[in-house]
Specification:
- It is built from 10 helices and 15 strands.
- By secondary structure, the chain is α+β, with helices and mostly antiparallel strands.
- The protein has a single domain, classed as Jelly Rolls (Sandwich), CATH 2.60.120.
- It has an 8-stranded mixed β-sheet. Strands 1-10-9-12-7 form a 5-stranded mixed β-sheet, with no helix packed on it.
- Helix 3 crosses helix 6 and helix 4 crosses helix 6.
- The two termini are 35 Å apart.
- Belongs to the iron/ascorbate-dependent oxidoreductase family.
- This is Fe2OG dioxygenase domain-containing protein.
Length: 362
């Protein structure tokens, strides 16, 4: 190992050993009033964080009337989702019938966990892949070229489909259980709409159990004084069928669209939906999993809650491009895979490495 790499490893370990996360850096600097960003968070000078920003907006889709199956209104919603999934890979939904209080309580719970006494949080600080509920800074902390300016509480239900609420931190236990219950009802409707948008029967994706394995990530992004030097989430695509994101009013999520960054401006009570790698694969590239990232805020703390739906990991289940979507004009692009293998490959590399789609491309 060269001297620079050795020094970086020591810096990473020293930070990790505090079990205080990025918020610990900000808290320690509070008395002096200046936050000194450690070198492990500074991106290399040759990396362009800018790119141009477009004024185009990710589509927003009103789901009011979606329950009236067979109606013109529902067909219009399906058409909007089809267009957004093919052209953007992202859309926001309103009138999804998850109560405002449930959304607000989830955000309060997530923020409450990260802002509680540091000693209480340390109990959950872990990088053990077998631990269902854990808190840390960047899952890829030791693999990425540069660390991202964020802390995360993770609820990993990829392999264990039952969540015992007693494993959750008390400060966000009730709100998390309530939110997950509502999200699981909504995602059934979402997979119906996505199935229809692919020209399939409404229950097609549900029968594939695309919603079964899941993980919840409660992200916390403290204020960052050097936005030109670091990111809160580096550019990547998601290793999921779909991801549902609840974001606060601060904003910072950006989607790469036509080689420009498009801001996903917060809409009150909306959920952001993005197509993940696994849905792009089984749709044979009909739907797109697109690159996205998050930028920080100089003065304000941002919170977001992402729910990733990965499908069946255990026991291993084979997925592959849907036969009906393979034609002479659209020949098969990807080979079959298991979610377990795909996720192992995803977690073996840094978030900022190349898309995992290459792993199963024929």
């Amino acid at each position: 190992m060269d001297i620079l790499a050795d020094d970086r490893t020591k810096q990473l370990k020293a930070f990790d050993d505090t079990k205080a996360g990025v918020k610990g850096i900000v808290d320690a600097a509070a008395a002096g009033g200046v936050v000194d960003i450690p070198n492990i968070f500074i991106r290399p000078p040759d990396e362009d964080l800018e790119l141009s920003t477009t004024s185009l907006q990710v589509p927003a889709i009103d789901l009011r009337g979606v329950g009236d199956k067979g109606s013109l209104r529902r067909q219009n919603i399906v058409n909007e989702i089809k267009h957004a999934s093919e052209k953007w890979g992202f859309f926001q939904v309103v009138n999804h019938e998850i109560p405002t209080k449930v959304l607000e309580d989830m955000m309060k719970g997530a923020r409450g966990f990260h802002e509680q006494d540091a000693e209480l949080k340390k109990y959950y600080y872990s990088r053990d892949p077998e631990r269902m509920v854990k808190f840390n800074t960047n899952y890829d902390f030791y693999m990425s070229r540069t660390a991202d300016w964020r802390d995360t509480l993770i609820v990993d239900m990829l392999n264990t489909y039952h969540l015992d609420p007693q494993h959750l931190p008390s400060v966000c236990r009730e709100s998390t259980v309530d939110y997950l219950n509502h999200v699981l009802k909504f995602v059934d409707t979402l997979f119906e709409l996505l199935s229809e948008a692919l020209g399939l029967q409404p229950n097609y994706l549900k029968q594939l159990e695309c919603e079964k394995g899941k993980s919840l990530a409660c992200h916390y992004y403290p204020p960052c004084p050097k936005l030109d030097k670091t990111l809160t989430v580096n550019k990547h695509t998601d290793a999921s069928f779909v991801t549902l994101l609840l974001q606060d009013e601060i904003g910072g999520l950006q989607v790469l669209h036509q080689n420009q960054w498009a801001n996903v401006d917060p809409i009150p009570n909306a959920l952001v939906v993005n197509i993940g790698d696994l849905l792009q694969i089984i749709s044979n590239d009909k739907f797109k999993s697109v690159i996205h990232r998050a930028v920080g805020n100089v003065t304000q703390t941002r919170t977001s809650v992402a729910c990733f739906f990965h499908g069946v990991a255990t026991p291993p289940k084979t997925y592959g491009p849907i036969e009906k979507l393979i034609t002479k004009e659209s020949p098969q692009i990807y080979r079959e895979f298991t979610v377990k293998d795909y996720m192992m490959e995803f977690y073996s590399r840094g978030l900022d490495d190349k898309s995992g789609l290459n792993y199963v491309r024929m």
